[in-house]
Amino acid sequence: MPITINGVDHELDVDPRTSLLDFLRGDAGLTGTKKGCDHGQCGACTVLLNGQRINSCLTLAVMHDGDSVTTIEGLGTPDAPHPLQAAFVRHDGYQCGYCTPGQICSAKAMLDEIAAGWTSYVSDDVAGSPKLSEEEIRERMSGNLCRCGAYSNIVAAIAEVAE
Ligand code: FES
């Protein structure tokens, strides 16, 4: 079976050592997903794998026969951006922008997790509350680093969409 990326099937006819990240950027030509550390530490390569966020540098492409991947290119278009993409623009949720695709994919998965029912990571008081605190967002987004330090604006953008 092929791997489905943003709704399009791709054959996994690659060297079995190819990471999913390199497959996306090279074979599939989807360079929106970024390579930062290539060791699972920065989150720049975050994509959605069957709806869950994953560091695409840490998994092999050939392991995902039949899976569905969504990258930043699959979330929206310049004419019809995803609400998170639009909010990042409104709030200047970036400086250099290198971490932004991973930040947005991670935020999308986080909001989907919360919509499906959640317990707070940081407080016993807000279990079941639809209101995300800044602390909660920061904890849940802690796998995505921003070397420019644009965290305040990133959190503001996510908080706006979460409301
Ligand atoms: Fe994958 Fe940094 S490039 S976590």
Description of the structure:
- The chain has 5 helices and 5 strands.
- The relative contact order is 0.16.
- The model has no long low-confidence stretch (mean pLDDT 94).
- The chain has 2 domains: 3-74, Ubiquitin-like (UB roll); 83-162, DNA polymerase, domain 1, CATH 1.10.150.120.
- The longest helix has 16 residues, at 100-115.
- It starts with a strand and ends with a helix.
- Strand 1 and strand 2 (8-10) form a beta hairpin.
- Strands 2-1-5-3-4 form a 5-stranded mixed beta sheet, with helices on one face.
- By secondary structure, it is an alpha+beta fold.
- Helix 2 packs across helix 5.
- Bound molecules: FE2/S2 (inorganic) cluster.
- Residues 35-38, 40-45, 55, 57 line the site of FE2/S2 (inorganic) cluster.
- FE2/S2 (inorganic) cluster binds at residues 35-38, 40-45, 55, 57.
- Residues 1-75 form the 2Fe-2S ferredoxin-type domain.
- This is Xanthine dehydrogenase YagT iron-sulfur-binding subunit.
- GO terms for molecular function: 2 iron, 2 sulfur cluster binding; metal ion binding; oxidoreductase activity, acting on the aldehyde or oxo group of donors.
